[in-house]
Specification:
386 residues; alpha+beta; Aminopeptidase; Alpha-Beta Plaits; four-stranded antiparallel beta sheet; 9 helices; 22% strand
Length: 386
């Protein structure tokens, strides 16, 4: 491959659809993006390993490495995007469009565009000093299905074949280093009652009435975890519990036989997924005692633990120095808790604003390109070439 400029790479990445979705009709393979990255990395002398996910056939991870042995820097990102609502986009989501000093496109900041920044930095280093003059290995990791199951990162962690010393996950943070973030649990509370005619309430068990008791317990749990746990670096310093969706019953003159509530919980460092799950089960236990087997607690997806880093790590210090920004804690979650299991210092730091993620007309502000390019280049250079 001949040298590709930044905009050409950006355009090619946006033009390769790679939506991951829980709805099968919207779900796509990410192979086209993986093939692009493999070609670009091979041209720079990287060795390439492409693996199909065991849990999601047709989805792929890419690990491209330059240099021998363990250690060095891993630059990681996901290749998939969220679905989009065509009626809310003014631009073609799969065509990089420039207007008002912005680059529009699906994945422009969340987060296929990050790979263009990385390859551009590697090409510049190669032109200046020769990329083969590295002192510590460089790994580019591209994962699948972050937007749905995080299966790509989970499988990388389980395989445990990669052993970098440092990892930068290029989610959009406006190049502010993120050293910790909350986790994510989505849980269904399903009440199974007994349907019947509304004229004889005692002949059935009204699932909505039972859910009323459950909600009272959940609101108590919400206050308990708010008052018991705190991590002051977060804007919202406590674990949160949100009642997000509820549905029950089918007609006004029938006793409701089934009611389901979906809740969202956001653990912070210091409280594990297992602890929150136990608290949730404990909260509904009295109701199950009163109405045996009426309350079921079901994970809607594999829970994502909180990511806990340290502001004292050498990678955080380097990122703060280069960006001029103090490391932050954020409420959203990423692949960091899984990739951190590889034993590396880990931060989340990438171009673009999180405010644009999952939004119609997603864009990268063009005035941020050059500063972001320079920071990424220096992160690579000072980690692997000095």
């Amino acid at each position: 491959m001949s040298h590709m400029n930044f905009m050409e790479m950006y355009r090619a990445l946006i033009a390769a659809p790679s939506i991951s979705a829980t709805v099968p009709s919207l779900d796509m393979s990410n192979r086209e993006v993986i093939n692009l990255l493999a070609t670009w990395c091979e041209s720079l002398g990287f060795t390439i390993e492409i693996t199909e996910l065991e849990s999601s056939p047709g989805k792929y991870n890419l690990a491209a490495k330059l240099g021998d042995g363990d250690g060095g820097l891993m630059l990681a990102g996901h290749t998939d995007t969220v679905p989009f609502d065509d009626s809310r986009w003014q631009f073609d989501p799969f065509k990089l469009s420039e207007q008002d000093n912005k680059l529009f496109g699906l994945g422009s900041i969340d987060m296929k565009g990050f790979f263009a920044f990385v390859i551009n930095a590697l090409q510049e280093i190669d032109a200046e000093i020769g990329i083969k003059n590295i002192k510590q290995p460089i790994t580019l990791l591209a994962t699948a299905d972050e937007e749905t199951t995080m299966s790509g990162a989970i499988e990388i962690a389980k395989q445990n074949k990669l052993r970098p010393s440092r990892c930068i996950i290029g989610e959009p943070t406006d190049m502010v280093p993120v050293y910790t973030h909350k986790g994510h649990m989505s849980t269904a509370i399903r009440i199974t009652g007994k349907a019947g005619h509304s004229s004889d309430p005692d002949a059935g068990l009204n699932a909505i009435e039972v859910m009323h008791l459950v909600i009272a317990q959940l609101l108590k749990l919400k206050e308990d975890i708010k008052n018991k746990y705190s991590f002051p670096d977060f804007k919202i310093p406590y674990p949160t519990l949100n009642l997000g969706h509820i549905h029950g019953g089918d007609n006004a003159n029938r006793i409701c036989g089934c009611c389901e509530l979906h809740i969202d919980m956001r653990p912070i460092p210091g409280i594990s997924i297992a602890e929150l799950q136990a608290m949730l089960l404990q909260a509904v236990a009295p109701i199950n005692d009163k109405y045996p087997n009426a309350v079921a607690v079901i994970d809607l997806h594999d829970p994502i633990p909180a990511f806990s880093g340290s502001t004292d790590s050498s990678l955080v210090k380097l990122a703060e120095k280069l960006s001029g920004e103090k490391a932050q804690a954020v409420n959203y979650c990423t692949e960091a808790p899984f990739l951190q299991q590889l034993g590396c210092e880990t931060i989340v730091m990438g171009p673009g604003s999180i405010q644009q993620a999952h939004q119609p007309d997603e864009f990268l502000a063009m005035e941020k390109i050059k500063p972001s390019q320079e920071i990424i280049k220096q992160l690579i250079f000072q980690s692997c070439f000095e």
